[in-house]
Amino acid sequence: MFTHTQPPATKPACLKPAARVARPTRRSPIVWLALAGLSLAACEAVQDAEPTRTYVISGDVSDVVSTGEAVLSRSTRILGNTEDFASVPIVDGRFRFEGIVSPWPTAGAPEGEEASDNAGEHALGLVFLVVLDAEGTRKGQARFILEPGETRVENGGPAIGLLAHGGAFNNKVIASWRDDDAYQTVLGDYSAAMAARGELAEDDEGMEALKAESVRLYQEHHRLRREALRAIVTAEGDPLASVFAIELGGMGREEALARLDELEPLIGDFEPLLALRSRLETGVRLRNTAKVVQAGAPAPDFSAPALNGESHAFSDAIANSRYVLLEFWASWCGPCRAEYPHLKEAYERYHEDGFEVFAFSLDEDKDDWAVASEEDGIPWINTGDLSAYDSPVTGLYGVLAIPMSYLVDGDGVIVAKNLRGDDLHAKLAELFET
User: Where are the alpha helices (DSSP H) in 235-333?
Assistant: First the structure.
């Protein structure tokens, strides 16, 4: 039986264009007998010529970006965290990746494939492809399954974004519903509605009706997507496809964990499944915590270091203030940083009256945290532990997404949650000026 061998451990991931490697074929017994008569040197040459489990990802995004960089990443076991594992330049709007996909795991493998623990960074599984322009600005993203063979990436338009085509798993788990007539009809109507909105000013007649219609179509195309993915999750016969469909949103929370319990014995030790389970378990735990940490409840205490290493206790900030805003943020969170001019205005206005801000960064890289803090001129208590969503602090408050904030009074009781912009100013005016 023909099996693929692992590539040498020293073979690097391809970060520049390379020749495409043909897919393997199964030979008949007659062919194998003929090969057996070759000299040892000839046999070694034939063996060396056998194709590895090569993936090729090529893209034409010239209508989005001409010069820049394409980056491949995948989710880790930490909720909200991804790791980059390959990047290539974009030249004249085109890019090309090439690398090796680890063999399938245990019972999830097609007949004749070797089992593997898939521990490598090029394991079969769901990945993100992001394209950046020459200034490093994100111009688009596609999600697809990294697998042997060729995947092509193209721009689907402003309302759709980047699309990936090709690959058996991609065809089954993504293209099967994405290319369906009903889905395409709704998506086309949604694109038309969004284009029509772009032609009108906010106060033009018909804008409100277009907004309502675009929201309805957006919800409808997501409903079709979820239902199609759920059918793949619950189907029998292809456990790996079910795992990928869960990761794409076909099932969530406790129900998804129960389905993974059924799938894991069929697949074995497969890192993408284990990472998905870890993220789901964290999400369930944080959601349960968030239900409890609400207005009227005591704010959990913690201590965390600032950029200079000095430790700050949240309880000390509470004891020294009338009101403290606990602000969860990160350097990479655009909405968080967009809120900072409003927050700085509130801080300058009410700080002398007893208003304090206690920030906790979800950054994993200290330099990123430091640079963003300097750029935004943060004047308040600024802490973090470089553990992102895996931090015990985020666990205390059930932080699933940022920005998130809690306004806490001098007795340590939560007064309000997620006050932003004018709502924050109004609440502080109520508390300090009446």
Answer: 239-245, 253-267, 271-292, 314-319
User: What one-letter code names the amino acid at 87?
Assistant: S
Distance CA 279, CA 270 (A): 15
Please state the domain extents for the chain: 1-166, 168-292, 303-433
CATH 3.40.30.10 fits 303-433, yes or no: yes
Torsion angle, alpha carbons of 323, 328, 329, 334, to 10: -90
3-state secondary structure of 46: helix
How far apart, in whole angstroms, are the C-alpha atoms of residue 280 and residue 110? Answer: 27
Q: Record the tokens describing residue 148, joined without a space.
A: 């042997």
Question: Which residue, among 325, 317, 351, has the nearest Cα to 407 in the 3D structure?
Answer: 325
Contact call for residues 288 and 281 (beta carbons, < 8 A): no
Residue pair 427/419 in contact by the 8 Å Cβ criterion: yes
Which residues touch 17 (CB under 8 Å, ≥6 apart)? 88, 96, 98
Q: Identify the DSSP state of 252.
A: -
pLDDT tens, 264-313?
999 988 999 999 999 999 889 888 888 889 999 999 999 999 999 999 99
Contact predicate 271/123, CB 8 Å:
yes
Rounded CA-CA distance 266/239 in Å is 7
Q: Is the peptide bond before 392 cis (omega within 30 degrees of 0)?
A: no
| Cα-based distances in Å from 121 to 13, 302, 408 | 10, 35, 43
Pairing of strands 54-60, 82-90: unpaired
For 99-127, the pLDDT digits (tens) are 999 877 755 444 444 444 444 447 899 99
Model pTM score: 0.70
The dihedral over CA atoms of 260, 262, 264, 268, expressed in degrees to the nearest 10, equals -170
Q: In angstroms, rounded to a whole number, what is the distance separating the alpha carbons of residues 112 and 186?
A: 41
